[in-house]
Amino acid sequence: MKQYRAYCFDLDGTVYRGTEGIDSAIRFIHKLQQNKIDYFLVTNNSSKTPVQLQTTLANFGLDVPEERIYSSALATAKYVNQHYREAKIHVIGSDGLFHALQKEGFETDKEELNPEVVVMGIDRTIDYMKLAKACVAVQNGAQLVGTNEDIKFPSELGFLPGNGSFVRLVANVAAVEPVFVGKPSPVMLQVIQDEYGYHKDEMVMIGDNYDTDILCGIHFGCDTIHVNTGVTSTEQVLQKPLQPTYCVEDLDEIS
Amino acid sequence: MKQYRAYCFDLDGTVYRGTEGIDSAIRFIHKLQQNKIDYFLVTNNSSKTPVQLQTTLANFGLDVPEERIYSSALATAKYVNQHYREAKIHVIGSDGLFHALQKEGFETDKEELNPEVVVMGIDRTIDYMKLAKACVAVQNGAQLVGTNEDIKFPSELGFLPGNGSFVRLVANVAAVEPVFVGKPSPVMLQVIQDEYGYHKDEMVMIGDNYDTDILCGIHFGCDTIHVNTGVTSTEQVLQKPLQPTYCVEDLDEIS
């Protein structure tokens, strides 16, 4: 297999599954670290701050500098700052998103009556009142921005509702089309390219989820590697009209 | 306009909007009462008991006997009893639905770990945990039954999320098709016909929402009157392939 200058990994389903590490991926990243090859962790998870994600990765034996972690929360905060500088925002989300927006200079603790942007990330305490407020704000003209459009995510109990479920609910009630920043939007890969100056053909996106990870790489225009360790099975991937560059069982196949 | 023996009204968006009465509709019902013409209130609202709905109507100056009120909560409880007699059920909803299910002999206060049916009606205290539990129960095989499929309903503040929004969320996460009992299903009009013995051409269904009220009448096979006082605008109605019998701005037009 071709060697790349920058390996971009999805996290959940690719590097770990819930509380379990995926050994082949961890071995692969260790090898990149030993060989001083660049790698990035590109996750739609908006609930955790980079430091919290660092701790999660440390639990699987991965020592990763903060600046190698790109979450949909960070990308969303940058997106909102670029497109709606100094706007009044209303946020539904968790630590990761609040932290990222504050870092970009937004006030997130005020109850804005007429926000210009409603930003939504996964919030395990979301309730009717929060959704109703978001619906009303969007009907009054606020732009609806979601960190990611995942309808569901796997857990030990089965699939649980993902952020995309709630953003779609608000969008349907308010009759608008939301903007989603996370994968499959190419925004996070674009930011990595801009910051490090790679050519697209020097980058590869690696992930288990066809609809987010693989399409993100395809939309961006770099090579992609599908791993059969999470949401989308290899069988399902082979039926898609747009194919990833490589399909592997796990990353031991290409070490 | 043709005179009917039985006028069936939707409530929210037709007789009132949130806490505001719609004067033209209230005048119209007063006139029916004076002329001793039958009328019924046929609502997808599952949150209130018939007595609570009576109180709401009294606030708008309408004195309506309890037996003239048909709610999706009452219809759903009957449906679940017919199809899943003595089943273990898990309920998300408000007073109206709990009350109706208890009347049909169901236990609604126990936390069922493996319910056979998940019944969902509007719940203004719905939250992530309730939705997650419903998603898991349905993935484990429970049938998903919704009182009504309204995605949204009008309020003074704008559209707010309706029960259909939450049932669809659970259905999408669990990858199932739900059953809906309220309008546009013709069940409630069928019950009125059965109880009073009208011919279908003696009945008319009046409402603001094309997708629930008007389609309910069309599915049932009676005449329909669309009023431009709520969810669906006349402009939107005119683009539908199946047209209501009449389209009016409000009920003053036909008094």
Description:
Chains A, B: Mg(2+) binds at residues 10, 12, 208. Chains A, B: Belongs to the HAD-like hydrolase superfamily. NagD family. Chains A, B: Substrate binds at residue 183. Chains A, B: InterPro entries: HAD-like_sf (IPR036412), HAD-SF_hydro_IIA (IPR006357), HAD-SF_hydro_IIA_hyp1 (IPR006354), HAD_sf (IPR023214). 2 copies of one chain form a homodimer. In chain A, 52% of the residues are buried. Chain A folds into 2 domains: 6-44 and 183-254, Rossmann fold; 73-180, 3-Layer(aba) Sandwich (Rossmann fold). In chain A, the strands form 4 sheets. The first copy, chain A, has a 6-stranded parallel sheet, with helices on both faces. A 4-stranded parallel sheet of chain A has the order 6-7-8-11, with helices on one face. A two-stranded antiparallel sheet of chain A has the order 2-3. Helix content of chain A is 36%, strand content 20%. The model of chain A has no long low-confidence stretch (mean pLDDT 95). In chain A, helix 5 (128-139) packs across helix 6 (163-174). The radius of gyration of chain A is 18 Å and the shape is globular. Chain A is built from 9 helices and 14 strands. Chain A has 255 residues and is an alpha/beta fold. The A-B interface holds A 123-129, 131-132, 135-136, 139-140, 151-152, 157-162, 165-166, 168-170, 172-174 and B 123-129, 131-132, 135-136, 139-140, 151-152, 157-162, 165-166, 168-170, 172-174.
